[in-house]
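> Could you send the histidine kinase prediction when you get a chance?

Sure thing. Input:
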Amino acid sequence: MKSPSAVRRRTAAAVGRVRDRIALDRISDPALHRYLSHWRNWLAALAAVSMISVCWPVLGEVTRLPAFLLPAFAILGCGGIALVFAGEEAVRYGWASTVITSAVASLVPNDGPWPMPIPLFLALLAMTVAALWTQPLKRLPVVLAAVAGAFVVGLPFDALVGWIFGLVVVGMAVAFLRYRARSQREIAEQTEETEVLRAREAVLAERSRIARDLHDIVAHRMSMVVVMAQTAPYRLAAAADAEEVGPGAKAEFDAIADAARESLDEVRQLLGVLRPHGDAADTAALAPVQGLGDVPELIEGVQAVGVDVELTDTSDHSSVAQTVGAAVYRIVQEAVTNATRHAPGAAIAVRIEEDPVHEGRLDVEIVNGLATQPLGATVGGGHGILGMTERAHAVGGSLTAAARPGGGFAVRASLPIGPSVRAVA
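Output:
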């Protein structure tokens, strides 16, 4: 016995072959072209033609309608079946036509078992199901009331109560399923939007922290330039081999100090708005920025709480730019924190060394093994990897974070040793 899916595929293929023989490109009406472009509409049209061909002679046999009205009643009553897959508006018009036609036909004297001819009753059931599934939820009571009215006109009393009860039950079930599906879809959309907003907020927050670090670093360096330029004449005069600074040289020193001071003001205007407000925030903002030399202290603090961390640092700290050192510190800090949170009890190895292949690059690697202790209840996904990636990109580097084939996790970053243009941009 063939499966329903195989039957659907063969039916769709057969309809597709028939459809391909018709030159759809020659159809100018976009609505008709769109209708004929889908194989389900072809099946619906075939079903409608079949029902019309059955309804027409049946109406002539059981009703006393004039012969010239038979095709009109058959088409108006059963033609809506061709629109069951054509969209909400098309189904609404087809359903209304079927309800009105079946109700009017029920008022015509006939010799059938029911006032409503059986073909029209079947078409009414089909269009009612289509209307319940496609019309807005707020209109479903109207659909049920109209169909119930057609039942009252077209069904005998002994069958009326059962069919109306079944109609209400089916209507409530369809409404519940559609409401549940819509709620799940809305929840999924809201969840996706929330994740996007959280990721965007994480990026903005990390960029704000990076900008504050750059502000502190640039402010420190430029302040030193100002001080050195202003005190240079006095230091030269007070040296063991005193040197007299002429008016021209002193003017140059003053110009250097003024230019550095103006640059410092401009940097503060551009980046100072990113600082948090409040006394506590201002105090934290004035704290020195951690760098490469602070990594050992960071590791010692983690080791003090019982975490097995090993640091291997062979880099020349004096040659590493301060912005890069700050990025290394933050990457190591976040990676070690993630390892202790997501792999409790695992050994962590931190390696910082100059790239032996690419000159002027610094390799940073944080690797942890499998967890040896149960995970805590607070473990969950965050934006740590995103923040580390932003840190690496800010100084012109790159970062990868992925699970290891043998178990555990590895974070690897390649950063320029000297300052990068991207770090200032």
